[in-house]
Structures are given as C-alpha cells and as structure tokens.
Amino acid sequence: MAKSIPALVDPRLLSWARESARLSVFDLAAALDLPAERIVAWEGGTAHPSVAQLRKLNGFFREIMTFIITLVNPSSSLK
Hints:
Layout: H1 11-20, H2 25-32, H3 36-44, H4 51-61, H5 63-70, H6 74-77
Helix pairs in contact: 2-3
C-alpha cells in the first residue's frame, strides 16, 4: 500500500479556513467521514492531513484553500 504524503499546513490556517466556511469540527469530520478527533489533531498541530485529504478539504473551503496554498509565510500574518 502506498504511503500517504503529509500536507504540512499551518494548523492555524486549517482552523481559520474551517471557521471561515462556517463549519464546526463535527460537521467537517462528518463530511470527510473522519472522527472529529482527527480534525482537532490537525488544528492542534499534533497531526497533519495527507495531500489527498487536503484536496478533499478544498471541496469545502474552495477559495480559502487556494489562499492557504499560495501563502509564502503565513506565520508572520497570523500573530
């Protein structure tokens, strides 16, 4: 089985994108067919979504994910 590639996205951006899309952790988890704890881990920085999961997130966040992917240095603007 192929190993998944982690998408090293700033967890604060994942939280911001979910909140901007007006989705709760539970709503997003249900839509992705994942446990809510996984979303919490992503947003807490203790785990990372895979590239494939990031693509699925794009379906919910649309323009927000384009913004996230194209950011050069997100940590400087999210303090």
